[in-house]
TrEMBL record:
Residues 12-23 have a biased composition (Polar residues). It comes from the Bacteria. Keywords: Signal. Residues 24-37 have a biased composition (Low complexity). The keyword Signal applies. The lineage of its organism: Bacteria, Bacillati, Bacillota, Clostridia, Eubacteriales. Coiled coil: none annotated. Transmembrane segments: none annotated. The keyword Signal applies. This is Iron ABC transporter substrate-binding protein. Residues 9-41 are annotated as: Disordered.
Length: 272
């Protein structure tokens, strides 16, 4: 589930009241000084997100249209979900961001336990079903996001396509897979966790899951530093397959014209 939360700090300024603080009256002969009004603090919003740039551009434009006082003052820092988690941890004593937009339920739930997120009740809170938001209002789910197999349609025919996760470890796909670097990516951590868990469910231990990941690694040509790098490499036919979330695959195909298709694995998909 893709979720969003508010960091545990508020932005704003405080001012001391003007005039004599002890309540005494100034002498009649004293010329009162003209008070210079303090300038209003500029509205500013800092967002940490793992969302695709085209989604960021669309949402920020709509936000600034509705709240013109923020126009030109929305700063978006794009990074992987795990990178956001680590940054928010590091900034706990002095938060630099306002909103965490786009991450896994697991990551934001952990952030709540660590006291990194503030409570908030947005106007849409009552429209989010229980189970898709934090019970105390620290984060709210945005969507359920299936993880799929992505491929370059110019490189693989329909007849050749892998049909399930286990097909990816077939030696015929050696050096054909390009994966987003796992440590920084909430999407890839979710997929890897699901691959381990399906064996743990059967065996009561993760060993076969780790072995499966080693076989996937043997077929993996490269771990891309970020999603954009991954998209470009597959478009340039440096690799033909990846594992990624359905929404971003569709965005790249329909909005950016990239030659991407997707496969819903027959055994099921993890949901972010």
């Amino acid at each position: 589930m893709l979720v969003a939360g508010l960091f545990a700090a508020g932005c704003g300024s405080s001012s001391q009241p003007s005039g004599n603080q002890d309540g005494t009256q100034a002498p009649a002969t004293q010329t009162p000084q003209q008070q210079t009004p303090e300038p209003e603090e500029e509205k500013r919003l800092v967002i940490y997100t793992g969302r695709d740039q085209s989604i960021i551009d669309l949402v920020v434009a709509k936000f600034e249209e509705k709240y013109p006082e923020y126009k030109g003052n929305v700063e978006v820092l794009q990074m992987g979900a795990q990178e956001i988690m680590e940054r928010v941890r590091a900034e706990k004593a002095n938060p630099q961001g306002d909103i965490w937009w786009g991450g896994t339920q697991q990551a934001l739930s952990l952030a709540v336990k660590e006291g990194l997120l503030a409570k908030i009740e947005p106007e849409f809170a009552s429209k989010i079903p229980e189970g898709y938001k934090d019970p105390e209002g620290h984060w709210y789910g945005e969507m359920l996001l299936p993880e799929v197999i992505m491929y370059n349609k110019n490189m693989i025919s329909e007849a050749e396509l892998p049909r399930d996760w286990d097909d990816l470890i077939d030696p015929k796909w050696k050096d054909q897979i390009i994966i987003r670097a796992v440590p920084q990516s909430g999407t890839m951590r979710t997929i890897y966790s699901a691959m381990i868990y399906r064996f743990y469910k059967e065996d009561g231990k993760p060993d076969r899951g780790y072995e499966w990941l080693l076989k996937l690694d043997a077929n993996t040509k490269e771990y891309a530093a970020n999603p954009t790098d991954m998209y470009l490499k597959i478009t340039r036919e440096e690799g033909s397959l990846s594992l990624w979330n359905l929404q971003d695959v569709l965005i790249q195909a329909e909005k950016e014209g990239m030659p991407f298709g997707y496969i819903i694995p027959e055994s099921g998909v993890p949901i972010l």
